[in-house]
Amino acid sequence: MASKETEIKKIAMIGCGSMGGGMALLFAEKGIDVSLQDPSTEAMDGILTSAKKDGLEKRMAKYEDYKSLCESLPNPKVFVWSLPHGGVGDSVFDGLRPFITKGDVIIDCGNENWQNTERRQGKSVTTGIRYVGCGVSGGYQAARRGPSMCPGGDDDSLNVVLPLLRKVAAKAPDGSPCVAPVGTGGAGHYCKMIHNGIEHGMMSAISEAWAIMTKGLGMSLDEVGDELQRWNQNGELKNTFLVKIGAEICRKVDEKTGQHVLDTVEDKVVQDWTGEEGTGVWSNIEAIDKHVPAPTLTTAHFLRIASGDLHQRRDIRKTFESEFTPKSISPTDRRAFLEDLRCAVYSACLASYTQGLNIIAKADKTHHFNINYPSLFQLWRAGCIIQSDHINDELLAPIYTSNAPAYINPMLQPSVAAEFKECFPALKNVVLRATESDHVVPSLSATLEYLKYQTSTNLPTSFYEAELDYFGKHMYDKKGEDPQGEPVTGRWHFEWKAA
Ligand SMILES: NC(=O)C1=CN([C@@H]2O[C@H](COP(=O)(O)OP(=O)(O)OC[C@H]3O[C@@H](n4cnc5c(N)ncnc54)[C@H](OP(=O)(O)O)[C@@H]3O)[C@@H](O)[C@H]2O)C=CC1
Ligand SMILES: O=C(CO)[C@H](O)[C@H](O)COP(=O)(O)O
Fold first, then answer.
1. Do residue 268 and residue 367 come from a single domain?
2. By alpha-carbon position, which residue is closest to atom 10 of ligand 2?
3. CATH code at 466?
4. Which residues are catalytic?
5. Ligand nearest 271 Cα, by number?
6. Which residues line ligand 2 (CB under 6 A)?
7. Which of 63, 83, 279 to mutate to test the pocket of ligand 1 (most atoms within 8 A of CB)?
8. Where is the 6-phosphogluconate dehydrogenase C-terminal domain (predicted)?
9. Ligand 2 centroid to 228 CA: how many Å?
10. Which is the closest atom of ligand 2 to the Cα of 384?
């Protein structure tokens, strides 16, 4: 716990966009004075207007330059950043440098790349400035109400910032704050990046199910909304944030037009096309770089890339002179099929968590983050986008307690394996029916394949290995001679054809 002297009563919010604005108001509501700084006076004025509406105007003021901003703060000066990643953070860091000293604190609440975080932590160390990389999740609404917060850094800095962050973080149903130290260095931003990768896998699976229900089963949007609400109420998907908002999205009618809003949304995800977000791309790069199979996440990402380039899809469709239009699906027992669909989506969501955690675990080994898994599951209990009571709180958190030995892949945990096994027939049935009716199910089918290949010791890859050895002398292991431990190149080459 931080001592009385370190109690933080005033902060500077640098970056007053949708996240920074919400957080600034939230800090003020929790009794913390806030100095605002953003290149856009309009953005700061917008927050001041909201503060006035909420009776918080006495707690806020705007500052146009770093000198006056820093003069407005008591020591140690605490800066909360909510900025775009990359160069912006570097220029703010350099701009603040003349005015900050030993003991001052930067809490970087943007989606910064964890390597930038560690680079700045390295620069801060010599001057005694504390730099905490703190992923924030839940979107702009949670930023105002209470987000999930994922801080990483050295123990002393974390001890200084945690009492402040506990005041604003989302609260789990038992009242405990969804913020906890996740590890050293860039661990906070690393885990937030993977949170976003998991988010993509889950979001894709739910979207695929929505299309099966509407285009395959001919359900109306209101009926899909009711079905998603059922999923969100009970069973393995209960209190799954993305399912809950899915139900609301399906039902939402624009009062002005009387039309369902979702009916007006183009099928085009243009998130991170220009690289200004980062996390979606980085999480997939990390999976591959760390040799972790994460097909639910990566296929979700490829669907999103294909989706973004709608013009290209239009052109390809013209070249093909047709599209593989999803056909109707007529199960003999519609309720049973919907139950299979729920289980299939659950499998993909659980697989997304599993794959994401495995990436974090591999990075932990490589980068020595010293990941605190109980903290991670605590901060994913509420406020965040991947919140899912059964997956996070009931199934995974009890496995990775502070008393648990080192991290073990969830696929090796009997309780997780039992749930995957139980859902496998449902997932297979959904993928089969969807495939024969030309539905688009990349994340669901990738999850099915994942379960098959992760549990198999007789993959088609003997043939693959032989081909590699044939053309590239890449070597292979003979059956039964596979050495224990980390995978290493095989010892055998066969001269398949004389050179
Ligand atoms: N939106 C979301 O759902 C979530 C976003 N995040 C992350 O939080 C961060 C902020 O996101 P969000 O609020 O959505 O983005 P916004 O673009 O709404 O906000 C970013 C703000 O930073 C300001 N800014 C740019 N350069 C500077 C600078 N040199 N000094 C001070 N302020 C500057 C921008 O001003 P200007 O517009 O004038 O350039 C803008 O007001 C990002 O890292 C994002 O990835 C994290 C979780 C959820
Ligand atoms: O952090 C977030 C949610 O958790 C933000 O919404 C972010 O903009 C998502 O970006 P991406 O989809 O590229 O990961």
1. yes
2. 277
3. 1.20.5
4. 192, 199
5. 2
6. 111, 137, 139, 196, 199, 271-272, 277, 279-280, 385
7. 83
8. 188-497
9. 23
10. 4
Ligand 1 centroid, distance to 403 Cα (angstroms)? 39
Alpha helices in 252-294 (DSSP H): 279-289
Tell whether 277 and 378 lie within a shared domain.
Answer: yes
Q: List, for residues 259-269, the tens digit of each pLDDT value.
A: 999 999 999 99
Rounded to the nearest angstrom, the distance between the alpha carbon of 111 and the centre of ligand 1 is 9
Contact 314, 394 (CB under 8 A): no
Full domain range(s) for residue 104: 4-181
Whether 17 and 150 map to the same domain: the answer is yes
Ligand nearest to the CA of 90: 1
| Tens-place pLDDT, residues 120-153 | 999 999 999 999 999 999 999 999 999 999 999 9
- 175 and 39: one domain? yes
**Ligand 2 site-directed mutation target among 148, 191, 277, most atoms within 8 Å of CB:** 277
Any domain includes 248: no
- Is the pLDDT at 6 greater than 90, yes or no? no
- Binning pLDDT at 50, 70 and 90, where does residue 272 land? confident
Q: Tell me if 89 is assigned to some domain.
A: yes
Mean pLDDT of all residues in 163-191: 98
Residue whose CA is at the smallest distance from ligand 2 atom 12 = 280
- The answer to whether position 237 is within a domain reads no
Q: Residue 2's pLDDT band (boundaries 50, 70, 90)?
A: very low
End-to-end CA distance of the chain: 69
d(CA 294, CA 351): 8
Burial 76-112, CB ≥16 within 10 A → b, else e: bbbbbbbbebeebbeebbeebeebbeeebbbbbbbbb
Residue 241: inside a domain: no
What number is the ipTM of this complex? 0.98
Helical (H) or strand (E) element with 136: strand 130-137
Instruction: Give which of 52, 51, 49, 42 is closest to 16, Cα–Cα.
Output: 42
Q: Are 167 and 203 in the same domain?
A: no
Residue 13, phi then psi, degrees to nearest 5: -100, 110
Res 1: pLDDT: 44
Residues 412 and 488 in one domain: no
Amino acid letter for position 19? M
DSSP sequence for 119-130? HHHHHHHTTT-E
Summarised one tens digit per residue, pLDDT across range 432-451 is 999 999 999 999 999 999 99
Cα 421 to ligand 2 centre (Å): 31
Report the separation in Å between the CA atom of 133 and the middle of ligand 2, taken as the mean of its atom positions. Answer: 16
Q: Do 147 and 275 belong to one domain?
A: no
**Cα-to-centroid distance, 16 and ligand 1 (Å):** 7
Q: How many domains does the chain have?
A: 3
Same domain, 370 and 462: no
In this predicted structure, what is the pLDDT of residue 53?
97
Ligand nearest to the CA of 147: 1
Residue of 112, 134, 196 to mutate, ligand 2, most atoms within 8 A of C-beta: 196
